[in-house]
Amino acid sequence: MSIFDTLMAYERDTQALGQIAGRLGWDQETMMPRGAAPQRGEEMAAIEAVLHARRSSPQVAEWLAQAEAPDEVAAAQLREIKRSHDRSVKVPSDLARRLARVTSEAQGKWAAARADEDVAAFLPVLQEVVALKREEGQALAAGGDVYDAMVEDYEHGTSAAEIAATFDAMRPGLVDLRARVLEKPAPKALQGSFDEAAQMKLTRKLAKAFGYDMGHGRVDKAVHPFSSGSGLDVRITTRTSAHDPFNCFYSTIHEVGHAAYEQGISRDYLLTPLGRGVSMGVHESQSRIYENQIGRGAAFTSWLFGEMRDVFGDFGINTADEFYKAVNTVHKGYIRTEADELQYNLHIMLRFDLERALMAGDLDVGDLEAAWNDRFEADFGYSVDKPSNGCLQDVHWSVGLFGYFPTYSLGNVYAGCLNQKMRADLPELDAELTTGNTSSATTWLRQNLQQHGGLRSPVDTIERAAGAAPSPAPLMQYLEEKFTRLYDL
User: Fold this and answer.
1) Which of 9, 375, 385, 489 has its CA 20 to 30 A from that of 334?
2) Whole-structure pTM over 0.70, yes or no?
3) What are the φ/ψ torsions at residue 228 (nearest 5 degrees)?
4) Is the confidence at residue 338, as pLDDT, over 90?
5) One of 48, 255, 284, 341 is an active-site residue; which one?
């Protein structure tokens, strides 16, 4: 075996162990007994210690120094192994282990605090998570910006300043369009109660309609919908609400976008650094284009309207056009994952600013709830009514995902670029979507983006697929045109 082959064999074992750690996380959010949380924390800490030791091993550095890449793919593998190694050697093993244990325990405490509407019960462990993440960020930044180091984990090649500039460019247009929309009468809403078992049956049909391979995946329920895994085992979760089936259906389509990306990556990259999505921003581009530009479009919703009528009977909506407007209603609300396309990015901008302040030490954890509530009222014009609709609604901070939130809006920006190119390449797409057939769209995305996994940088991945450098302009144009027609502005 060459040195490169030896390194790749070692890396496959590391990747396999990482998949096992991910499966523990999936189980924790879906099947694990609540009382198992302390033990699970120790289990997660133990496997993280093993992974950290492998990733930071001096032997890896020696192999990297000697390995020769025979082609572009091999060069990309070495680049990604080196990036992981360089990061790992900066973070002390004990810190990595403590973070794994505390964030595993914090997740359960967050879920309990959210259910009890008790911010005070969550703040002590959040304080611990924030302190550990600051310590990690300082180690990674090596004198640079701590938050930039955190963003690098999820969207390498960008910075907080670049993200802030993008958000600043988007915010005025979003606020203006929202104001014009909210002056108009609200569309008709769904009426009645929707059996939750029937929702789960239809949501699995939706998952398959968007190309999710149930032979290598499964759909379960969780407090916070998510996608987990890569390669041959990619799982998703959703949630149900008796009075809001859209919550279930569009959470599922969103997570299928993530899962389809992982399932669509070339099998040649299985259990290698290239065998997963290149960044969370690119990942979100897939979930958001599946959910919004495809799933909430007039063509696809005309098919979904018929499916829902077959399952639930009369629910107060009489035509496909009324249904399309109901799916895309711009409404007051607190929950990010339930937000309409128009307001979603404003939720992300709020979190981006708050977590930057937390990591910089400009905002104390004890003041987080008040800061959230003040910012929400300033941005949305009404007050948060309870913690589960405010600072307790998202799981991310409890599990230490600081730097993750801005990638949601970057994903929207990328999705706008991809949708513009996909529509130009597939002029007959809407005719197919009216029958529930998404295969042309999902095949286009698989061929132009998903199959390449981590081969290229995030920006290069989008630029090659979309035919132009990423820009918020296509997204803003799409939103303006869509909601102008919907609300007759």
Assistant:
1) 489
2) yes
3) -140, 140
4) no
5) 255
